[in-house]
Amino acid sequence: MSGRAASARPRPGGGRSHESRRPAGREGREVGQPPGPRPSPAWPGPALSSPSPARRPGGADLRASAPGPGLGAPYLEVDLVHHLVSDVMVDSDVQGVQVKENIKFTPSLSEQRHKFVLDFVRKHKPQKVADLGCANCKLLWRLKYHESIEVLAGLDIDENILTRNIYRLHTGAGDYLDPRERPLTITLYHGSVVEKDPCLLGFDLITCIELIEHLEAKELAQFPEAIFGFLSPTTVIISTPNSEFNPLFSGKTVFRHPDHKFEWDRTQFQSWALDAARHYGYSVEFTGLGEPPPGAEAVGFCTQIGVFVKNIPNTDESLHSEKTTECTHTKVGTVIYPSLKEEKYLRKAVSNEVFSYILKMKRDLLESLKMKNDSDGCDEPEYVQPECDEFKNDPTEETPKPFCIENVFYVPLERLFSFPKIKHLCGDRETLKMLIADEVTLSSDGSSVMINIVDEEDCDLNDNDGDDYDLDH
Amino acid sequence: MTGRARVRARGVYRSSESRLSGQSQSSAWSHLAAKDREAATSSGLLGIKRIPQKSEEGISAGDGAECTLVQRGGRTQHRNFLELGIHTREKLEHVKDCKTGTSGAPVKLVTNIFNLALPREWHLFQYHVTFSPELASKRLRIALLCSHSKFQKKAKVFDGSILFLSEKLEEKVTTLSGETRPGICITITVTLTSELPSCSPVCIQFFNIIFRKILKKLSMYQIGRNFYSPVDPVEIPQHKLSLWPGFAISVSQLENKLMFTANVTHKVLRNETVLEFMTDLYNRKDKSRFIETCEKELLGSVVLTRYNNKTYRIDDIDWSVKPTDTFQKRDGTRITYFDYYKQQYDIKLSDLNQPMLVSQLKRKGTGNEEARIAHLIPELCYFTGLSKRMTSDFRLMKDLATNTHLNPLLRQQRLSRLADNIQRNKEARFELETWGLQFGCQMSLTGRVVPSEKILMQDTICQPMSSANWSKDMRNCKLLGARALNNWLIVCSHRNEDVAENLLNCLRRVSGPMGFHIEKPKITKVQENTTAFIRAIQQHTNLDLQLVMCILPSNQKDCYDSIKRFLSLDHPVPSQCVLARTLIRQGMMMSIATKIAMQMVSKLGGELWAVEIPLKSLMVVGIDVNKEACAKGRSAVGFVASSNSRITRWFSRCILQNTKTNIADCLKVCMKGALDKWYRYNHCFPTRIIVYRDGVGDGQLQTIVDYEVPQLLSSLRDSNPNYSPKVSVIVVRKSCMPRFFTEMNSTLQNPPLGTVVDSEATRPEWYDFYLISQAAYQGTVTPTYYNVIYDDNGLKPDHMQRLTYKLCHLYYNWPGLIKIPAPCQYAHKLTFLVGQSIHREPSMELADYLFYL
């Protein structure tokens, strides 16, 4: 099999489509068309005890496989552009090579990894989450939508990629129009995962998705101490390729990605993980993503994952006590989201709600008055209940009704407060009163909102009178 | 690719990250949010043309103006928003040395313009960069060059092929090498193409880019070409509106200095989701027509989806799809909308019965993809912009104006805060310093207040108390020339019969002192519907009918439109529509009747008043171009020319044409008509013609100078070979960046009417001036900008300014000054009526009347 794959290799054009689908940096984090030749069983998996020398098989292999100089450029392009290719379609339409051997994942494996993290977040509702090796920030972008998260941090060794991708995390008009319930601050840091920086202390979840295989042996050796020992978050998710799966791919490189320094089989990963967990007081569970095709179940998942949970949860004291190390990471950018925890946004949200209810009640009232007037002269008197469906069997029934004195319409605060959304936003009546005091007119005893019934519109002079007046001013 | 897109695509700026992936698959329709795309789509840096490369080896020491403005083949969409490199003044002999006027009292003015200082001998160095082997990806090129040690610490701007540096490299040609991946070497050749002085157009464009960067550093959002600050919005909850304060900015070379202009603007955001709107509409009466009304209101509006901050146009509503239905994702799996939003954005949809908004996504790239469609959830869509319904809501607009029309003092406060921020912010200051820019103080200058005008009536000359409004001053004065109204018709509904009688009485009372004779009209009462009105008019039209007055029961647009259409096309008679509601205002009837009477006099071809015009045999022309509301891609060109020396009578013509067509063709027809008319009344041709051209969009000046003016001149030659009048062409701009304030009683105020600014804030390459001819009762006055692009009349600048000011007095729909010369305002009114109501060219029989007032 490997022989056939090798003989089919130098195909003009095939190389390109093949490679362009593959993000070459660690950021790409994608399984493209990984290696064809079965790694020899003697391949030395770097264990903690015997770190293998750093290898860069990707570059060499690709160069060797390029049929001519003409194809050199596409390779290069791919290499630097890798981080721009956000989600690579896994072998959607690879031309040629060994179709029989292609493995497709739907949804894509990187999507599945993100989903794995998101499901975890949904279940455990961490408040502070950091993504190490966040690269194109796509996972952070997915995470920012989760209400439970209040602090998000991303760390990457490549500063360029962070400055180019921080835009994904920026706030937009929508975030101001409909602010989050809870605050959210996103910070991107430039630095190495093995440097001990206090800015990442006290997190609930740290994710290292397809990260460790990019570490040089020296860094890999420091990694457990930096993450589990120093940062010591409540939970850690680590994912990495499972090398046992690689033979199923019809590629030609040794590793799935040219920047990978190693790829572990399950035993290697698990022993490394168990070692680290034991040493730093974590328990670890293993799982994976990307099921092998029928008949090849023995190789295990395409991506292997370790979920680490700290045995003794962090306490406030343990967080504040020590670790006054100097900061080594540099801040690339901070994005602060508006939230209802800030009074100005809360005030806005409440007054918008209050106004829409009041204006609605006023309109219903006017309409019912108009109905009455009209029906006086009409053949078929028809009285329409001003209350609409929404008001039926709802809690507002119990509360004082809005009323009219002369031309002023009074809406009791009590009634406003009974609307679930307003109640939810304000919490208590005093807060409601305080928040809307500047926006509305309150009755003298402060129990109702007052609004004029007569539309002042009728009094304007310069309205749209056809061609009557021209307004130059 | 348009210039805008191209500039956006430059990789230098963070916002320029655009999506690369996701285009390989062309699914017939994919859910809009299946991919996150560029977060800030509207973040194009500048609508400028791509700075073209100079490939030759030589260094051009001069400016790169020519190269910037060369129209590149095939790209007609390019717009030179800053209108750089158009030198019209140098061709005007009489203003070469001095373009300033002399008359009037000097007035000290504060501006919204700031000095920018550069070191002496400052140059921008433009390099051309090539890569070998060639790199197709712009991003790759940018990444490679910017990460090179040689440029890492340097101030630079690089778009993939052109590199700008503030310091010169040692060599004219520098060869560097870089690695895209281990072992693969790329040779980068950097060649100096120009050394640009700060006043060169390329530099001006460049500075604009730099300042856009700076404002972003101040945490402002770019929307369109302006910058807004979302952190301290103004809320107007009763209308569900939020306002983001912000600035429009520009850097330009004014007279002899580089200047930064900042103008306070606001962005209106709406706190209303489409679902709220729909529910609201549903709960109003008449549920049977809900779907129809809903589609009428929603289709075509632009919405913002709150989860990804993108905008979409609503093209359709799919009432059959609900959030619990499924759609196919890109990867082929199916998911319900509800689950999708839960999974992707952690949003729990509250209404499971809402329909889907349908938006057709713009095709990107090659265009051989099938058009893609996005389904949007009403609950997650916010409206953007003000709807028609909102702009016609008087209270809303008033509340909006209260918050957006800032008086000079508040404006000044905002400006100083901006200046402060730019100077204090570390990153902003760093950006300025790297390029050697120094942000200076606010400019103040001296303007002149030109003498006020006397208003000539039939027997009297009145010197109004205020030229903003002389209605009081002309009370009991006879109008200059009113034609008797003998044969006319009033159409009103049965319900409004009394109202009509009342109006008629008032009209009789006010018309006497005006010298306007009104005979008894024929009054017809009809049902309250459009057809009844039209039928009544049809029945009662006769050849001698001079005017039709309609008293409309409501301001339904279709009724008004039908009447206007019938009376300007089928049976051309001037018409006067009045809302019944207007006529029931107690205590105001006399002033309303006065106004209506004056409008009727104008529509009958009468003259209301005049100002002294020292030039005899002068024809003034106003041109405006407006969009046609109904037919996309068509525009209405309005042409209004005076037909007597006193400039009290007008010839008006409106032509509908394709928006892309040059308006020069129809100018020929109009000009000929105007000259014939002039000849008929004066038995000679005018010796001077001054054309005020309004409706010039940003970036169109070049076309006007290059095509319109020559064609206008040739059309005059064609009309009569022996006739060669002296011609001036003036471009009128109602909106411009500069604002002027005067210090009075220890506070800032609007400058007095008639203030002219023709120095310092003007551009050296143009014969231009600012004139304040309108009174602002609220907020800060916007000066009107005049740019004389062609002038062989040889009038002194002072006379040109004063003539322009005089013309602002002659708009018969308002007894006071207006902000543009009357012929322009007439042309505007005409195009508005045609574009909004008639949609066809009105009958030539009406050309002598101001029937469109």
TrEMBL record, chain A:
Gene3D superfamilies for the chain: Vaccinia Virus protein VP39
Reactions mediated catalytically: small RNA 3'-end nucleotide + S-adenosyl-L-methionine = small RNA 3'-end 2'-O-methylnucleotide + S-adenosyl-L-homocysteine + H(+)
Domain of life: Eukaryota
Chain spans, region Disordered: 1-66
UniProt-recorded Gene Ontology molecular function terms: metal ion binding; O-methyltransferase activity; RNA binding; RNA methyltransferase activity; small RNA 2'-O-methyltransferase activity
GO cellular component annotations of the record: cytoplasm; nucleus
Keywords (A to Z) from UniProt: Magnesium, Metal-binding, Methyltransferase, RNA-binding, RNA-mediated gene silencing, S-adenosyl-L-methionine, Transferase
Entry keyword Translocase: no
EC class: transferase
EC number, UniProt record: 2.1.1.386
Biased composition (Pro residues): 34-44
InterPro entries xrefs: Hen1, SAM-dependent_MTases_sf
Record's function text: Methyltransferase that adds a 2'-O-methyl group at the 3'-end of piRNAs, a class of 24 to 30 nucleotide RNAs that are generated by a Dicer-independent mechanism and are primarily derived from transposons and other repeated sequence elements. This probably protects the 3'-end of piRNAs from uridylation activity and subsequent degradation. Stabilization of piRNAs is essential for gametogenesis.
Family: Belongs to the methyltransferase superfamily. HEN1 family.
PANTHER family: HEN1 (PTHR21404), SMALL RNA 2'-O-METHYLTRANSFERASE (PTHR21404:SF3)
Entry protein name: Small RNA 2'-O-methyltransferase
Species the sequence originates in: Monodelphis domestica (Gray short-tailed opossum)
